[in-house]
Design a protein that fits this description.
mainly alpha; 142 residues
């Protein structure tokens, strides 16, 4: 997670991104001896790969168009290279958004999240799902 947050270029950010995905997979599959938990880990892995593939394509477009993956340089050159609302800028934005949606289990790539709740008690799973649902999350954080 630190690599993801502290990265100064998009390639290192992607490396941290994959590390977070690996940790999610390993945590979900921790109780792998139970068949449903093994299936949940595989499901999470494959669904998040969809988001990761979208992010890779977005990063490739950034690199081919701007010739850099340094975050500051991308911000500086994107303003001068891409027109606001242009095709390349829109494509990159949507692809990076798809990557975030896949990794954070947002619609429409949320299908793996309910299966990933492999806690020992149903009340723990219910609490987690309720806590992170949008209305409760807003109320909880004030």
């Amino acid at each position: 997670m630190l690599i993801l947050v502290l990265a100064s270029d998009l390639l290192l950010l992607y490396l941290g991104w994959e590390g977070v995905g690996l940790c999610s997979y390993l945590l979900i599959g921790h109780w792998y001896r139970e068949r449903k938990n093994e299936a949940a880990a595989r499901k999470a892995f494959f669904v998040t790969r969809i988001g990761d593939a979208a992010m890779v394509v977005g990063l490739l477009i950034i690199f081919t168009q701007l010739r850099t993956l340094d975050i500051q340089a991308v911000f500086a050159s994107a303003r001068s290279t891409w027109a606001v609302g242009g095709t390349a800028m829109t494509a990159v934005t949507l692809l990076l958004l798809a990557g975030a949606l896949g990794k954070s289990a947002q619609l429409p790539l949320q299908v793996w999240l309910p299966d990933a709740m492999a806690g020992r008690h149903r009340s723990a799973r219910l609490f987690t799902l309720l806590l992170w649902s949008p209305p409760v999350s807003i109320w909880w954080r004030g």
